[in-house]
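Q: Hi! Curious about what Proline iminopeptidase-family hydrolase looks like structurally. Here's the sequence.
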Amino acid sequence: MKKTIFLSIFIFAIMLMSCNKTDSKVAENTATYFQNTETGIQTGGVKMIPIETPKGKFNIWTKRIGNNPKIKVLLLNGGPGATHEYFECFESFLPAEGIEFIYYDQLGCGNSSATQDISLWDLPRFVEEVEQVRQALHLDKDNLYVLGHSWGGILAMEYAMKYQQHIKGLIISNMMASAPEYDRYAEEVLSKDMDPTVLKEIRSLEAKGDFNNPRYMELLLPNFYAKHVCRLPIDQWPEPMNRSFSKINQSLYVTMQGPSEFGISGKLEKWDRKNDLKNITVPTLVIGARYDTMDPKHMEAMSKLLPNGQYLFCPNGSHMSMYDDQDIYFKGLIAFLKK
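A: Let's find out. The predicted structure is below.
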């Protein structure tokens, strides 16, 4: 009996010591993650980065969340022309895993310098902008992961084509590698999924170039956006997403994407890098979703064309699957980053 009591006390003591060590480790990791590395005036992780362009100098807004010398995720937002704000849901998942990430508003977006010079809306120039941001933030192949969502995925792919020697890994979220193939998917799949009467009226407005007609968005919201952009009830769309979308730089969006939601007609109309994916050798995660505006089968094929690619499928998600299929999106992303 005494031996049993002694053994129970001994086991309890070991468990208590183990818990104390775990709590201590968690506290240590938390302290390290939130360690302040800024010098001078404290700005909450915000850093304005001056960049050079063919049209002079501009300032780019960035904000660092957390501190992890091995994993730093630079977020490239979509649109083109949206803001970093719809990525704010990342704060509910990455800090708990000790993963550092960096918000970044591209030129002409959000808190970065505003300009209406459409000559700056050019893919190679945006690539050089990302490179200048990387250098200013002292990110390198030992820690930098570039995550590009939607248009940001195009930018991420282009950046990796030229500068992959500076990155540790790549995440292409909800973006195909070919604008012509996206056009075909929009025409052959997404359009046919819509009520023919609604589609006819949308096509009529587009043919007239009447994109600013309130009726155009009135038709798109329930018949396209609610099905393929974010499948949460429209009146429950997340505030950070609404806030970001409300600030879209229309000049940038129309110049690069074109005014229509069915396919691409702007500068990116003929963009196609599918056959060049074999040249991206860094570990790459491609994220697709069942109800996305982008073809999930195409994105799965992309992962197989990448020498070190893998695919994450969000069965309940759409284009904003970081919101409408959060559990699978973030579990997969975190597993990739930690692997």
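A: A fun detail: The chain has eleven helices and eight strands.
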